[in-house]
């Protein structure tokens, strides 16, 4: 499977010049696909249809039924297509939509025929001078940069032991608490919200299995784990952020959307109990 960020030797890729915004707008018309967002340490896959993709600053919506994707056009470095998949590449990793018999090939044909899009330049958040505690979850998810990592210790964030993450996933599954998983890759952030059905270990990997989605983590690739907070639909909400050995954010575990108070409180208590 082409999930490691490298070109597939079995498929001849064709470049799509339409641009990330045009591709993002077309995703919801693709029909049923297997979406896979992967970086060096984590992978989130989901079989289904895309909900309308969100651009930076737009509403944060995700659930268990449809594929939720946030696309940062300035962070997408290349867009290509093969007979198997549509791929958005960036640093780190990729986002791929693997086609199924229920996918609409006319959407890809239209994207290949579309005029070239324009190049966008990212406007990075000035994290050192930013009101960290005044930011919301959208700002956090749309700016998962190394600059943000560098100021984490000075913003009230708390470092916890990375070894606790597999146990955190198991505990959330055991008590049936829904949570949001966000995985960046290819200039995108794919999200899923819902309770996990089970957590399993296979070799060096830990996987949380949902209904039509699956989250896979390689604990050995996680160098640091930080607990941060931001404003969400239920008020100030904690996030558990995982960083690889190059200080790149590879996963965010949190709560999003309109959730009931007991779910919010349970999540906050669990996050507060994570040991350093």
Automatic annotation (TrEMBL):
Pfam families in the record: HemS (PF05171)
Name under which the protein is recorded: Haemin-degrading HemS/ChuX domain-containing protein
Membrane-spanning parts: none
Gene3D superfamilies xrefs: HemS/ChuS/ChuX like domains
Residue ranges annotated for the Haemin-degrading HemS/ChuX domain, each copy included: 156-273
């Amino acid at each position: 499977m082409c999930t490691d960020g490298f070109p597939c030797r079995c498929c001849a890729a064709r470049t799509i010049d339409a641009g990330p915004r045009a591709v993002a707008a077309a995703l919801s018309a693709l029909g049923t696909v297997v979406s896979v967002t992967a970086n060096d340490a984590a992978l989130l896959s989901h079989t289904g249809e895309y909900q309308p993709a969100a651009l930076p600053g737009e509403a944060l919506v995700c659930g268990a039924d449809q594929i939720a994707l946030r696309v940062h056009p300035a962070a997408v470095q290349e867009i290509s297509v093969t007979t198997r998949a549509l791929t958005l590449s960036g640093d780190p990793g990729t986002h791929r939509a693997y086609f199924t018999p229920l996918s609409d090939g006319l959407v890809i044909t239209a994207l290949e025929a579309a005029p070239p899009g324009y190049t966008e330049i990212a406007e990075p958040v000035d994290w050192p001078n930013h009101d960290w505690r005044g930011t919301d979850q959208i700002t956090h998810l749309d700016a998962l940069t190394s600059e943000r990592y560098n100021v984490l210790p000075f913003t009230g964030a708390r470092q916890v032991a990375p070894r606790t993450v597999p146990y955190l996933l198991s505990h959330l599954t055991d008590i049936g608490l829904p949570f949001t998983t966000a995985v960046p890759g290819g200039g995108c952030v794919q999200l899923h919200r819902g309770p996990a059905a089970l957590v399993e270990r296979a070799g060096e990997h830990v996987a949380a299995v949902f209904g039509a989605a699956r989250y896979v983590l390689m604990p050995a690739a996680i160098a640091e784990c930080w607990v941060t907070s931001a404003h969400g639909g239920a008020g100030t909400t904690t996030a558990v952020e995982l960083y690889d050995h190059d200080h790149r954010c590879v996963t965010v575990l949190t709560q999003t959307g309109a959730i009931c108070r007991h779910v919010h409180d349970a999540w906050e208590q669990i996050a507060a109990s994570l040991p350093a």
